[in-house]
Every structure is written in C-alpha cells, then in structure tokens.
C-alpha cells in the first residue's frame, strides 16, 4: 500500500517552494534557486518511493483520494489524485527530468538578475504539471491545464522587455485558450451526458464505468472536443504555430516545458482518458491523421530552419505528432513509451543547445557555429547521443520506442506507416544537418567557445545515460503491467534503421564538408519559400486576426457609437443637454444643499407616484 | 437578536462623517485618517457579520426593525442572509482599498472624503435593508455623490462622463421605482417589508399578467446599473473619467447592487414572470459578453478596456440569473463577489498608472513593468483573473455559471465560453502594449509603489481573490443557504 501522504508531498512540494520564493526570496538568487531545486527534488524522491511501492504490488495498483473543493447539492467538484502506473511513470519523467533541468538552470541563468523570478515561475510550472498528472477529475485537470498554460506564458515572456519574447508569450497563451474553448465545451458536454442514474460526475473512475452506456454519437463529439485541448497543448496541426515562437523563452524552459513535459500533456491526457476514446473509431481516425500530418509537416519545416532551438522545436512537434498518431492507432502504451524516451533525449538536446548558446553568448544560428565537438567535448558527445537517440539508431532508447509506433502503424494503417517512415528519414536528415554543421569538423580560428560549468554538464550526462538505457529498463512493462508487449518487429526495425542511416548519410554528404551556407536553398527550388514561410499558417492567422476579427470588432464599435449612442438614445442625449444646464446652476459645492435637494426630490416623487396609482 | 447589531455598520461611519464636517479643511492628514477609520470600522464589522452568520440555520439573521411611516408600511428593517452578508464583505474590502487608494487626491480633500463616505454608507444601507423603501433610499444616497465626484475630481472629459452616467442611472432607477411601487400596490399588503412580502407571495403569487409587466420594469431598471446591453454605454466612459476610488467602488460594488436587486425583487418575488422573461435576458447576456468583449478589442485606452470588460463580464451574471438552478445562481453571487474584487483591483492599478504617467493610452505607455515591477505584476494578475485563469475567484464563479446554464441555454453557454477567449485576447493585448516590450524612454523616471500603504490596497484585493479562488468553500456555504430557497421557489412554478 502506498502512503497517500507521499503523494500529497510530491504534489505540493514545488508549490511550497514557489510560495516561499514569492514571499521571501525574490531578492536572493541563491536562496530562491535552492528552494526551488529542493522542492522539485522532494517531489522526485517521493515519486521514486511511490514507484517502488507500486512496482512491488500485484496486480497493478490504482488508488485515489479526494477532498471536496466545491459542493452544492447538485454539484460536487473534488480535489484529489488518482495514482496508477501510467501516472507514476509520467510523474517520474516530470520530476526526474525536471530536477535535472532545475539544476542546470542554476548555471544557465546565473548571470540573469531576474533569476529569483525565473525559479518562482519554474516551481509554479512544476506544481501545475504535477497537478495535470495526478488529477482525478476533469475540472481539476482543466484547472492545472490552464495553470501550465499560464506558467508557459510567463516563462516564454520571461524577458518581457524584448518585443519578440512578449509577443511569443501572448501567442502561446491565445492559441491554447482557443483550443481550450473546445476542451471546456467537451468537458461540459461529457458532464451533462454522464448521468446514467447515479448523478453526473467529473471523476475519471466514475466515467470509465459508465462510458459504455453512453450514446456513441454524442460521445464522439465529446471526444473530438476534448481532443481540441490536445491540439492546443501538444501543438498539433493546425494550432502548432505557437511552439516554434515559444523558443523565445530561456533554453531550460524550452527543454522542460516545450519539449519534455507540458507539450506532452496532451498525449498523456489521451492515454489517461483513453477509455473514452477506445470505442470510437471515427474519433481515433481523426486523431491518428492529425498526428501523422503534424509529424510529417513539422519534419519538413525543420530541414530549412537555421536557429538551433527552432530546429529542435520543429523536431518536438514532429515527435509529438508521432505520439498522437500512436494514440489514434489505439496504442496508448506505444505513445507513452515514446513520450518517456523522447523526454530524455529531447531535454538532453535542448540543454545541449543551451550549453552551446551559453558558450557562444546567445548565438543561435547554426551557420555561425562550427567544430563545437572539439571545443566542448561533453556537450558535443552528449548532443551526439541525443541526436542518435532521436534518429532511432540501435540500441539507443529512441530506437525501441519509435519501433513500437512504426510496428503499430504497419499493422493498422499502411498510409500512416509510410508517413511515419518518411518522417523518420527527414528526422535523421535535419538532425544530421544540425550536427554536422554546428559540431563536426575543425573549429575556426575565431571560435572561442569553451565547455560549460559542471552544474550544466552534470544534467547533460544524467540525461544522456537515460537516453542510452531508456530502451532496456522495462518502461512498457511498468506502464501496462498486464498488457502484452509485442517483441521487436524485425522487418520494421530493419527498414527504419536503414531509413535513419540513409538520412544521416545524405546529410553528411551535403553538410559534412561544412559549406559556408545552406546548399539546400538552391536545390529545393520553389518548395524552399513555402517551407521558409511555414506553409503560410502564420500569414493566414495574421490575416484573420488583423483583418477579419479586428474589422468585425471595429464594426461593432461603430455600431455602438452611431446606432446605440447617437440614434438610439437621441432623446436621452438632448435631455442630457437640457439637464446639464440645470445641473450646472445647481453645482454650488455645498453638500448639505445637495442632500436636501435629494431628500426633497425623493419625497415629491414618491408622493406623486402614490397619488397617481 | 444578539448585539452588536447591524445598525452600527451604518451608525459608526455616519458619526465619523459628522465629525469630518467640523474639521477645518486645512488639516488633510487628519481628515484622511478619520475617513480611513470610518471605513475600517464597518469593514471589520462586516467581517464579523460574515463569520458569525450561521449558514446551517439560514434565513435572515441579526434582524432589527423599527416602524417608521405606518400609513405606507415603511419600516427601518435590517438583516442579513448569505447573499448580502457576502456583499457586505465585498463592500468592506473594496471600500477600504478605495479609501487607501485615494491618497493621490490632493484637491478639496474634505469634500472628497465626505462624498466618498456618503456613497459607501449608502451602499452599506442598501445591502442591509430589508425594506424596499429603504433599499431604494440608500441606493439613491449612494448614487448622487458619484455624480459629483466624477464631475469634480474626474479627468478630462469628466463632465460628459458624469452627465451620461447619472442620466442613465437615474432613468434606470426611475424605471425600477415604477416597478417597485407597482409591486407594492399589487401585493395589497400596504407594506414595503421585503420579508413580509416574500412570505405572502410564496402562498399568494401576484397574477401572472401583472407580474409580466412589473418584472421587466425592475429587471431593465436595475439592469441599467448592471450594464445590460444596450444600456451599457455609460459605463466605459464613466469609469474611465472617474477618480480611481469611484471607479473602484462603482465597477466593483455599486454595479452589483443592480444584480442584487434583481435577485431580491424580481426573481425572488416574481418567479412566474422569470420564466417568461429570463430566456430573453439570457440572449441579451450573450450579446453583452460578445459585443462588449469585441468592442474592448478596439480600445486603446486602458480604462476603457477595463470598462468594456466589466460590461462584458456582467453578461455572465445575467446569464446565470436567467437559469433556474442553484449551481448558476450560486455562480452569480460568487461572480458578483469575485468580479467586484477583481474590478476594484484593476481600476486601482489603472488609476495608479494613470496618476503617475498622466496617460491611459496604451500606445504611449509601453514596457512600464520594467520601471514598476510591483504594479506591473499586480496588473498582470488582475488581468489573468479577469480572463478566468484558475487560482483566482473569477474562474470558480464563471465555471459555476457555465455548468449551471449548459442544460438550459446550450448555445448561449457555448458563446459564453467563447467570451472567455475574447477576454484573454484583450487583456493580454493590454498587458503586451502597456506593460511589456521595450520601455518607452519617456517613463525612465516612473516610480513603483513603494511604501506598504501604497501597496496595501493591491495586496489585500489580490489576497482575497486568490484565497477565495483556491478555497471557494469559505464563501460558497453562505451563498448556498440563501439561493436554495429562491431557486426552489422558481422551480416549483
């Protein structure tokens, strides 16, 4: 049996750190960072203890505890947690990777005067993210869903004095809000149809029992509305536009929020509430295709990008697409497996990128980097490990988890299998392009980069180890102890390995000799500007917001000014002018006089009314 | 009933107000201090009343009654239930914050505080009265000084603003008065006593035909105060030009008197007519939310944005009022409280910024968080609260209204959810333009709130907003006891 207190400690430790920082430590870099790190480490430790206890129990343990948060006779909203292997796995990722990134941030943000604010926000984020993982009902989930959105907004716009950062924060928040419009409607709809005789409920466990009795048509609508939330948070097409801009935030934020945890929350939500989606084939199909298209599209965008963080951001999009696709193909285990390994190597890659950016004084363009492997051996080697894991090279973790998804696709949907395989090839290509350009070869004479301090390289090594061994530590078994685990699909594995090696090889042929600028620009021809403009999504949204929405709002304002104010209350305004003259003569400045007039007036009015009626 | 009775809430500040009359106007500090005490005392008493109210027993408590004009059945009758005890608390917090935030007033201080105190006392009186005549009387007492304060201490277009606001509110109040008088006569009881009327009507309702024309008079009449579309245009300009404390109080509390009156006199007394009229109100509510929200998008003046935002959010109150179930009616009262606190906070902050910079134009501001981290952070939190971010009380209130209205008004509710997105857009835009981005060099010398006194109004309002947002049960128990009877009454019909 797991002690519930452990869960509550894991839940609230980062919040405590956040509150303490807000109240006391906003002036001290050391104390604020230490309290935040202590908070997340406490959570991590508790999670490990819970995991050990859960792992020892058979059959798989699921337990929850709730307190009443809102209670009216017709409505109860609880605040509680629901712990099962899935949640604990996710919690391990969040707090484990989180701890590494918190520690890393202490080095990375050392020179920033606003470091206390940074750690306060980071702790707020950690708390909110843990909240998503543990919530046992939809309203609580939605609360934390919004709170991670909030902390993401705060952290993207951390350097709010920079216009681009402030804009990116706003964009991320807006896009997510728009998606949550659908999500909230979905929650309301699900709640309203959830009454099959025992009253309505938001609780996952209640819903799981009654879901088979619900009208499948309405349930499909619900599922798609809930999926809207996933599209926003996990940045799927067509709401993917915010994630690349979110790279304006400090790099540890990109690693934690926009690669390893928050953006994966959508995938986690699908897995957690998979009981709703499972019987709905149409809905699953939509999900699978949205994921597949996102995966391919983002991969094509990554190959023309020059900013190291944005390349990784598109790669994140693409991998999230694969995970969503896996869920759509009814494979929560495969999706979550890839989520976990991806958290390891993508956080590693981002932190590596951060180490490079730190060493090069905020240079992010890969064409201004060279030979970094020699200059920064630890960063370079760990980055290489991350790259190979992402490309799915045997025997690194990415190989195993990606293989599961590809095998799933090859069984159920050949078209999506092709999409996913092409995506793998492109992934290897753009990661190769990045690595060969920035890290390979001889450093130029003016390259004065040097290795980052230990507080930054230690988390890199930690994550690199996880990226290597992630395929061997029994993650699928832990996630779904009862499920069957298909053994390695040889055919798929061989094909995907060949594709990945091909991608790396082609990119070496093009970029291995380190050309001065990107030769792809001329080779791609008319496709290049399309990719450079990101398929014109931003242009289209900009047009909508500035032209359509703003014009409509201006039209309403005009309507208000003319129709309501000028014509609608024409009589009233002319009365106002007449009244104004009288009132002006009455402005004697004597309050007593006003009071007298008022009392008299009320009495007169009152008497008149009484007479007449 | 037990001592100390509710009359002290009115009596203490009135006595101190009398004292201020005798203080020469060249002693501003003394006047400020006495006013602060005059507001602090009823604030503390209202906290006491709120905590002492027994939500298990329910009903009106701390009742006191003195007969006044027998011929018309008018009596001085005070008492609280879960709804107005919460409103007292709201008024207590907001008025205290408003008085503290009045430090920037330097001109005709004595008159200013006298008027401010009259408004606050009047509002207390209105919320406490269980007699319809006295409710109306206090309601007017509260309204008149507002006109003068905007006219004297307001900014550039103060005369137009004062005129517009007053004419609208007077017209609305007159309409409501006709409705209330008609109500008085149609009961045939010859009494203004709300409790007596309530008991009588529960057994012998007014004929539906009569209800059906009294009801809209009251709802529209008080709806003007509540910025019911299309009678909302007084609010943005009124709030923008008013001195800070007035916009805090008016947007925060006085406006809620409209909703309070609708709950008490319209829905509470004429449930049958509610079924006829409220569906129309539900649709107007959505127009409020979307229309005013979109117009807020076009504004560049910080206070106008807040003004339109406040009109837009009244739509949620109206939508909740239109539903006949406990969830949404509880949500309404919750939102009256939450929005009251949030609006006071937002206007206090906007007022602080406007006092310092002498501008409210977002294009002229820009990046001022760099110079004023405290104010900037507080404004961001107020804006996020207004946008319904969880953790603040507004989220709880809005979600309750939406849960309650979902069954009854499906499309209206979906549009209301969309309204939350619109709020986020204009609020974030305001933050982005005014508070983030590179600092406009013009503002290099801006000073943040420094002393605790300066920071106090913001801190207390934020604290309440977060406390209630995280722990809604502390106020929802009170609300529930009182809304239950109203809703049961409606559902029965």
Major sheet attributes of chain B: 2 strands, antiparallel
Q: Name the beta content range of chain A.
A: under 5%
Tell the overall outline of chain A: globular
Main beta-sheet strand count, sense and barrel state of chain A: 2 strands, antiparallel
Largest two-chain interface: A-B, 64 and 71 residues
Biggest sheet of chain A: strands side by side, in what order?
1-2
Structural class of chain B: mainly alpha
Strand content of chain B: under 5%
- CA radius of gyration of chain A is 28 Å
Distance between the termini of chain A: 76 Å
Output the helix-strand order of chain A. HHEEHHHHHHHHHHHHHHHHHHHHHHHHH
Low-confidence stretches of chain A: none
Summarize the amount of helix of chain B as a percent range. over 70%
- Secondary-structure class of chain A: mainly alpha
The total strand number of chain A stands at: 2
Instruction: List the domain count of chain B as a whole number.
Output: 1
Q: How confident is the prediction overall: mean pLDDT of chain A?
A: 89
Q: Measured on Cα atoms, how large is the radius of gyration of chain B?
A: 21 Å
Q: Could you report the average pLDDT of chain B, rounded to the nearest whole number?
A: 90
User: What is the subunit arrangement here?
Assistant: heterodimer
What does this structure look like?
The complex is a heterodimer of chains A (613) and B (493). Chain A has 613 residues and is mainly alpha-helical. In chain A, helix 4 runs antiparallel to helix 5, helix 13 packs antiparallel against helix 14 and helix 13 packs parallel to helix 19. Chain A is globular and about 100 Å long. Chain B has one domain. Chain B is built from 18 helices and 2 strands. Chain B has a two-stranded antiparallel sheet with strand order 1-2. In chain B, strand 1 and strand 2 form a beta hairpin. In chain B, helix 3 packs across helix 18, helix 11 runs antiparallel to helix 12 and helix 13 packs antiparallel against helix 17.
């Amino acid at each position: 049996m797991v002690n519930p207190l452990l869960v509550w400690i894991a839940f609230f430790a980062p919040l405590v750190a956040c509150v303490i920082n807000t109240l006391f430590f906003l002036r001290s870099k050391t104390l604020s960072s230490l309290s935040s790190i202590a908070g997340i480490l406490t959570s991590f430790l508790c999670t490990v203890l819970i995991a050990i206890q859960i792992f020892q129990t058979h059959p798989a343990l699921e337990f929850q505890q709730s307190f009443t948060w809102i209670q009216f006779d017709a409505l109860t909203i609880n605040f509680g947690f629901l712990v099962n292997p899935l949640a604990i796995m996710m919690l391990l990722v969040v707090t484990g990777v989180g701890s590494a990134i918190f520690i890393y941030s202490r080095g990375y943000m050392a020179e920033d005067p606003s470091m206390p604010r940074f750690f306060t926000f980071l702790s707020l984020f950690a708390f909110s993210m843990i909240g998503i993982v543990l919530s046992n009902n939809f309203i609580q989930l939605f609360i934390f869903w919004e709170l991670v959105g909030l902390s993401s907004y705060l952290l993207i716009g951390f350097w709010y004095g920079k216009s681009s950062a402030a804009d990116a924060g706003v964009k991320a928040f807006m896009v997510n809000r728009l998606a949550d419009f659908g999500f909230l409607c979905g929650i309301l709809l699900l709640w309203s149809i959830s009454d099959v005789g025992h009253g309505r409920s938001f609780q996952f466990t209640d819903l799981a029992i009654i879901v088979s009795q619900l009208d499948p048509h309405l349930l499909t609508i619900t599922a798609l509305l809930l999926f809207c939330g996933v599209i926003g948070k996990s940045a799927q097409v067509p709401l993917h536009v915010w994630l690349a801009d979110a790279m304006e935030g400090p790099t540890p934020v990109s690693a934690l929020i926009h690669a390893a945890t928050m953006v994966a929350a959508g995938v986690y939500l699908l897995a957690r509430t998979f009981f709703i989606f499972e019987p709905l084939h149409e809905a699953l199909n939509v999900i699978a295709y949205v994921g597949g298209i996102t995966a391919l599209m983002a991969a094509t965008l990554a190959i023309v990008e020059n900013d190291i963080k944005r390349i990784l951001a598109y790669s994140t999009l693409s991998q999230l697409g694969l995970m969503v696709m896996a869920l759509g193909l009814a494979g929560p285990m495969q999706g979550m497996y890839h989520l976990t390994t991806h958290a390891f190597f993508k956080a590693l890659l981002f932190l590596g990128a951060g180490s490079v950016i730190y060493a090069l004084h905020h240079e992010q363009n890969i064409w201004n980097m060279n030979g970094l492997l020699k200059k920064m051996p630890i960063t370079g080697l760990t980055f290489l490990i991350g790259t190979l894991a992402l490309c799915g090279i045997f025997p690194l973790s990415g190989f195993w988890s990606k293989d599961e998804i590809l095998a799933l696709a090859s069984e159920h949907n050949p078209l999506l299998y092709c999409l996913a395989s092409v995506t793998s090839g492109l992934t290897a290509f753009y990661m190769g392009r990045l690595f060969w350009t920035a890290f390979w070869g001889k450093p130029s004479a003016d390259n004065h980069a040097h290795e980052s301090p230990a507080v930054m390289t230690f988390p890199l090594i930690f994550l690199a180890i996880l990226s290597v061994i992630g395929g061997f530590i029994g993650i699928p078994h832990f996630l779904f102890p009862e499920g069957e685990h298909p053994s390695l699909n040889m055919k798929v594995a061989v094909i995907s390995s060949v594709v990945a090696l091909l991608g790396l090889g082609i990119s070496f042929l093009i970029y291995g000799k380190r050309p001065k600028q990107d030769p792809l620009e001329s080779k791609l021809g008319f496709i290049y500007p399309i990719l450079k403009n990101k398929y014109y999504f931003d242009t289209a949204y900009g047009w909508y917001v500035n032209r359509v929405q703003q014009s409509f709002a201006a039209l309403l304002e005009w309507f208000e000014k003319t129709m309501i104010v000028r014509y609608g209350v024409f009589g009233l305004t002319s009365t106002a002018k007449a009244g104004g003259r009288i009132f002006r003569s009455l402005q004697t400045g004597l309050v007593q006089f006003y009071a007298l007039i008022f009392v008299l007036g009320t009495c007169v009015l009152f008497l008149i009314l009484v007479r007449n009626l | 009933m037990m001592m100390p009775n509710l009359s002290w809430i009115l009596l203490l500040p009135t006595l101190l107000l009398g004292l201020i009359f005798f203080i020469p106007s060249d002693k501003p500090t003394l006047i400020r201090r006495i006013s602060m005490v005059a507001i602090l005392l009823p604030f503390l008493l209202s906290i006491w009343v709120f905590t002492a109210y027994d939500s298990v027993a329910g009903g009106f408590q701390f009742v006191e009654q003195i007969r006044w004009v027998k011929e018309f059945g008018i009596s001085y009758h005070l008492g609280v239930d879960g709804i107005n005890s919460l409103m007292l608390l709201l008024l207590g917090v907001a008025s205290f914050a408003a008085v503290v935030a009045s430090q920037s007033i330097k001109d005709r201080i004595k008159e200013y505080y006298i008027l401010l105190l009259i408004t606050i006392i009047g509002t207390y009186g209105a919320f406490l009265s269980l007699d319809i005549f006295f409710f109306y009387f206090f309601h007017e007492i509260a309204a008149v000084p507002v006109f003068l304060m905007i006219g004297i201490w307001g900014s550039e277009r103060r005369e137009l603003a004062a005129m517009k606001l007053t004419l609208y509110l007077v017209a609305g109040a007159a309409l409501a008065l006709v409705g209330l008088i008609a109500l008085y006569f149609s009961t045939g009881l010859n009494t203004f006593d709300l409790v007596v009327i309530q008991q009588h009507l529960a057994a012998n309702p007014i004929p539906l035909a009569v209800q059906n024309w009294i009801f809209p008079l009251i709802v529209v009449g008080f709806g003007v105060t509540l910025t019911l579309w299309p009678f909302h245009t007084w609010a943005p300009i009124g709030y923008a030009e008013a001195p800070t404390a007035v916009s805090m109080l008016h947007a925060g509390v006085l406006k809620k008197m409209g909703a309070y009156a609708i709950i008490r006199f319209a829905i509470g007394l004429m449930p049958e007519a509610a079924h006829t009229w409220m569906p129309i109100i539900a649709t107007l509510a959505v127009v409020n939310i979307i229309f005013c929200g979109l117009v807020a998008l076009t504004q560049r003046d910080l206070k106008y944005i807040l003004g339109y935002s406040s009109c837009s959010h009244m739509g949620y109150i109206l939508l909740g009022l239109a539903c006949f179930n406990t969830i949404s009616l509880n949500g309404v009262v919750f939102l009256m409280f939450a929005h009251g606190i949030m609006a006071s906070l937002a206007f206090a902050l906007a007022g602080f910024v406007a006092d310092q910079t002498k501008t409210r134009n977002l294009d002229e501001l820009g990046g001022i968080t760099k110079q004023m981290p405290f104010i900037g952070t507080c404004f961001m939190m107020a804006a996020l609260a207004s946008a319904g971010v969880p953790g603040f009380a507004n989220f709880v209130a809005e979600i309750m209204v939406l849960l309650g209205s979902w069954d009854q008004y499906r499309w209206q509710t979906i549009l209301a959810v969309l309204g939350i997105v619109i709020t986020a857009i204009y609020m974030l835009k305001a933050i982005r333009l005014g508070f983030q981005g590179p600092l406009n060099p013009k503002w290099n010398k801006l000073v943040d709130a420094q002393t605790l006194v300066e920071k106090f109004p913001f801190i207390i309002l934020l604290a309440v907003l977060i406390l209630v947002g995280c722990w809604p049960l502390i106020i929802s128990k009170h609300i529930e006891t009182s809304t239950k009877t109203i809703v049961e009454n409606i559902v029965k019909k």
